[in-house]
Design a protein that fits this description.
The complex is a heterodimer. The relative contact order of chain A is 0.10. Chain A is an all-alpha fold. Chain A has a domain of 209 residues. Chain A is 73% helix and 2% strand. In chain A, strand 1 and strand 2 form a beta hairpin. Chain B is 78% helix and 2% strand. Chain B is built from 20 helices and two strands. Chain B has a two-stranded antiparallel sheet. The longest helix of chain B has 31 residues. Chain B is globular and about 70 Å long. The chains are: A mainly alpha, B mainly alpha. Chains A and B meet through helix 5 and helix 6 of A and helix 16 and helix 17 of B. Chain A: This is Cation:proton antiporter. Chain A: One of its GO terms (cellular component) is plasma membrane. Chain A: Its main location: membrane.
Chain lengths: 487, 496
């Protein structure tokens, strides 16, 4: 298959899978087989694009000319390649986990769950491969809408209230801020195609650049920069596999990915660096990192704590991108991967704990390490990665972000990372300590590990977290193409 | 003369002559079939005419062979052809799908009269879009209005009578204003033909009667178009009319008035009154913006589905007028495209309401709670049309909203105000569309809703067709856009 066809295949295949899942809905085993086959084939086809991209190829395909020279078009560049590979690969693991979780919990509407999941993955790939902002916006909105049924899965009044916040913020910011930003860009630049070096240089200058950047950053609500982060804790009412893949990887990473892509390919790193009015973004990201960590420190619910941790970690990527040095841009890309492995493991663990014991609050987790050793071992590794302790993946990305910050002597960024590391340790370490060394409260339910597919999945992602510390060379090579060279 | 050359006349003649035939047929089934066939024929004619317009032909037809300006001439320009498509398309969809719905609302003994009135509305609205004669517009306007009052009042809901009365009074004022304006222009120029009027006005330009005439005509048509604050007749009329009448009328009747408004102001007055474009814009723009804000705000708190959509229409008419009042190629393209796209979205939504009404006792948000699970296809179509109304990408509504925002951005500072207003109103649209979706899908169904089944096939089929059109024209908008662009070029031709 040519690269062009592979791109189209990767976008359509999950949708076909969704149809297959819907048709097989009456036979759960067949349905799950369809999901797994779809996910595996998808990951293989996405990976098959990688060598070409490594060699510098940028395959692209135009699907339709819409109006006024705008088109629905897709193309693959290093950042999108990375995001697509990540989302599609973790979909396999997540599907294995979902089988354990959804069956272990006797959830209703499982067919709807798997169908919407497949559509969301297709939309995430669309975001990853979008060749221009119009295409990206289209896929971005499909991603929002297709995840709504997943968030409101439980269907009770409280869930619907949370899901309404989720949809309201994501749709509201995208229509209210992102769309005007895109149209403004089109009005001044005459194009929306992602172009290395940016398209705005010479077309827009002065405070307008800062304002446009603001419209983008807050319009892309999925990046969860404060104050548009509220949807993410709300989304935690979803079943855990949704929180794990969508609200630690696909959806939120679509947000920071879009911000990074806008900075690199719309504003242009060097052009934005030369424009002082864009400088506020580092402060906004730094504030989000610290504030989210402080809030996480005060949470009693495990999933909510993880959600606030995610908000902070997402702003690492934003800040890294906003530091605007070659090394930090690579750091942003690497952190997308490193955080994905770690956070999905943490959510998998939280879900496994829930399935096995129905426990959701932090004080309930005392001594749980002895009942669920595999789960908690994985949890520990992933938490260390969040803090950035070697030998975990989180260390690698922090290294690059710090190195990038030193390149321009950006002490704010350096200070933020150090402070946030301390805070991360402050909210993760007590949980880990209590899980392994405290005694279990009396009168609890007698339980062991969660169903084996769930445990298998979380062990795999924990291993990946470790492995990424040692085998990160391909990712670095791929992403160094983003900035031409590593200074 | 070949048949093709007669199409502009047939556009009006077919429904007009079928109307008495329908009265004679008497039985509900036969009269429905005849009316539907006439409407379908009219739609086919409109499509053929649109094809000719797109091919670049200038369609000019002289009634009875009398040359203009002595006889009545029919002219079909790009915008007229777009409006014809809306009028005939909405009528056809509503008739094809509406048989069951109308059977529950109109007594069997009076149904043939109802269909006859429907065809007269169709003939009148089409007539306005094809004619090149200002007085002829008035005649067709009265024909369609009187028949529309009959349609709206025909339902079982007695509140429709007061709503119709309100509409009748205001509609008559609007038509009278228009007639006064046309009379004054006739007094000064001695002609009623649009093209001739434009030429002759040059001799008497800037005289007070012409300025007054422009004022009367603009206000009269704005009333017919339900421009804020002259829209008060609209919510009641849309709410209490039989559901299918709402679907038909809401999709096209106000747009016909906007069409005449644009035609008069851009073709006839533009070159003959100094700074007319400035006056036109400064009159229309603030009212359009207010209409957008007020209509959206009210729609957010309405609980009757039809009333909610009616207030949303007030806001959407504001979008169209906003695009027109920017007086730029991009703005008018956006306005024309939005006429088309809004008709698609709103028509589909009212069709869905009609489908719900067939199965449920009411169409308040409480009444439709949970119906989405019982009527999944109807609900899906409603959701797609709602997305189009909000302007979600991939739907038709997105295309025109994009064009409108782009046109507003190009206007500089003032345009930014418009951008902010449109964005606020889009957010309001998210809220009110979401209230419908949430009520229909996520609320607990009542016993009545539990027993509801999917709507009958004809209405379901046209509903899904309308929803599919919302997506199709969102992804492949070339056809309405080229008509819209041609309209903009034609309308701005007078603006050197």
């Amino acid at each position: 298959m040519s690269a062009q066809n592979t791109i189209l295949f990767a976008l359509l295949w999950p949708l076909l899978g969704a149809v297959g899942i819907a048709l097989a809905g009456r036979w759960p085993n067949l349905r799950e087989t369809v999901t797994l086959v779809t996910a595996s084939v998808l990951a293989l086809s996405v990976w098959s694009l990688a060598p070409g991209i490594m060699d510098g190829g940028r395959p692209g395909v135009v699907v339709a000319e819409v109006f006024g020279g705008l088109s629905i078009a897709f193309s693959v560049e290093p950042l999108g390649m990375l995001f697509a590979a990540l989302a599609s690969t973790l979909w396999i693991v997540n599907s294995v986990y979902s089988i354990g979780y959804m069956r272990g919990n006797n959830e209703k509407h499982q067919t709807r769950f798997y169908v919407c999941f497949a559509i969301a993955i297709a939309a995430a790939l669309g975001v990853a491969f979008a060749d221009n902002l119009l295409t990206l916006f289209l896929c971005y909105e499909i991603l929002t809408l297709s995840t709504y049924p997943l968030v409101s899965h439980k269907g009770d009044a409280a869930t619907i209230r949370s899901a309404r916040i989720y949809l309201g913020i994501l749709l509201g910011t995208s229509i209210g801020l992102l769309l005007p930003a895109i149209i403004w860009t089109y009005t001044v630049a005459g194009t929306l195609t992602f172009t290395p070096g940016g398209i705005l240089e010479g077309n827009l200058a002065g405070p307008a650049v800062g304002l446009l950047l603001g419209l983008y950053v807050f319009g892309i609500g999925k990046a969860a920069v404060m104050p548009v982060h509220k949807w993410l804790p709300s989304a935690m009412v979803a079943p855990t596999p949704v929180s794990a893949l969508l609200h630690a990887v696909a959806v939120v990473k679509a947000g920071v990915f879009t911000v990074t892509k806008v900075i690199i390919y719309i504003f242009g790193v060097e052009a934005l660096f030369a424009e002082p009015s864009g400088g506020w973004l580092v402060y906004a990201a730094a504030f989000t990192i610290i504030a989210a960590s402080v809030v996480a420190l005060r949470q009693q619910n495990l999933k909510r704590m993880l959600a606030y941790s995610t908000i902070g970690q997402l702003s690492y990527v934003i800040m890294a991108a906003a530091v605007l040095t070659p090394l930090s841009e690579v750091g942003a890309a690497v952190h997308i991967v490193a955080h994905a492995f770690g956070k999905i493991t943490l959510f998998f663990s939280a879900g496994a704990i829930y399935v096995a014991s129905k426990k959701t609050e932090l004080p309930q987790l005392h001594g749980i390490g002895r009942r669920m050793p595999w789960t908690m071992a994985a949890f520990t590794i992933a938490a260390l990665s969040m803090i950035g302790v070697p030998p975990t993946g989180g260390f690698v990305s922090k290294w690059f972000i710090l190195a990038g910050a030193f390149q321009t002597d950006n002490y704010l960024a350096i200070f933020t990372i150090i402070l946030s590391t301390v805070l991360n340790a402050a909210y993760f370490l007590p949980v880990i300590f209590a899980a392994w060394f405290s005694t279990e409260p009396a009168g609890g339910k007698d339980h062991g590990e969660a169903p084996w597919p769930a445990v298998l999945a979380l062990c795999v992602t924990a291993m990946a977290t470790l492995a990424f510390f040692f085998f990160n060379q391909p990712v670095l090579e791929l992403e160094s193409q983003l900035v031409g060279r590593l200074k | 003369m070949s048949l093709t050359a007669q199409l502009p006349a047939l556009q009006v003649v077919v429904p007009l002559l079928t109307a008495p035939l329908v009265v004679l047929l008497r039985t509900p089934g036969l009269s429905w079939a005849a009316a539907t066939a006439a409407s379908l024929t009219a739609f086919a004619i409109a499509v053929a005419l649109a094809g000719q317009v797109l091919a670049g032909e200038v369609i000019h037809y002289e009634m009875g062979g009398w040359p203009a300006p002595f006889g009545i001439s029919l002219n079909i320009d790009a915008l007229g052809s777009l409006v014809l498509l809306l009028v005939t398309g909405a009528s056809t969809l509503a008739l094809v799908g509406g048989r069951d719905s109308l059977a529950t609302e109109i007594e069997a003994g009076r149904r043939h009269l109802f269909y006859a009135a429907w065809l007269i509305v169709l003939a009148g609205l089409s007539g306005i879009a094809v004619t090149g004669d200002a007085f002829n517009v008035f005649v067709f306007m009265e024909i369609s209005s009187l028949a529309t009052y009959v349609l709206i009042a025909a339902g079982p809901d007695r509140r429709a009578l007061t709503a119709t009365f309100k509409y009748l009074i205001m509609g008559t004022i609007g038509a009278t204003f228009y007639l006064i304006g046309v009379g004054m222009v006739y007094m000064m120029t001695g002609t009623l033909n649009f093209a001739d009027m434009e030429v002759r006005l040059a001799e008497v330009t800037e005289l007070r009667p012409i300025v007054v005439a422009a004022g009367f005509i603009t206000v009269g048509l704005a009333l017919k178009a339900a421009m804020f604050p002259l829209h008060v007749w609209l919510p009641g009329a849309y709410t209490h009319a039989p559901h299918m009448v709402t679907a038909f009328v809401a999709a096209c009747s106000t747009k016909v008035a906007i069409y005449v408004l644009l035609r008069f102001d851009f073709f006839v007055f533009q070159n003959n009154l100094s700074q007319h474009d400035l006056h036109f814009a400064s009159f229309l723009l603030p009212l359009a913006l207010l209409g957008i804000l007020v209509g959206s705000a009210v729609a957010m708190v309405e609980s009757n589905l039809k009333r909610l959509l009616a207030h949303s229409s007030v806001a959407q008419i504001g979008y169209i007028l906003l695009g027109a009042s920017l007086i730029s190629e991009a703005g008018i393209t956006a306005a024309a495209a939005h006429m088309f796209n809004h008709a698609l979205a709103k028509g589909a939504m009212f069709l869905a309401v009609a489908a719900f009404a067939l199965r449920l006792s009411g169409v308040r948000l409480n009444d439709i709670a949970g119906v989405g699970r019982q009527m999944p296809l109807t609900f899906a179509a409603l959701a797609v049309a709602g997305a189009s109304l909000v302007g979600i990408p991939g739907t038709a509504g997105f295309v025109s909203k994009w064009l409108l925002l782009q046109a507003a951005f190009a206007q500089g500072t003032l345009g930014l105000v418009a951008v902010v207003v449109v964005v606020l109103s889009s957010l309001a649209a998210v809220v009110y569309v979401w209230r419908i979706i949430e009520a229909a899908y996520f609320c607990e169904p009542s016993a009545e809703v539990q027993a509801a089944r999917e709507a009958p096939l004809p209405i379901l089929a046209v509903l899904l067709l309308a929803a599919a059109a919302n997506i199709y024209f969102g992804l492949v908008p070339a056809f309405p856009l080229s008509l819209a662009e041609m309209s903009a070029t034609e309308l701005l031709g007078g603006l050197q």
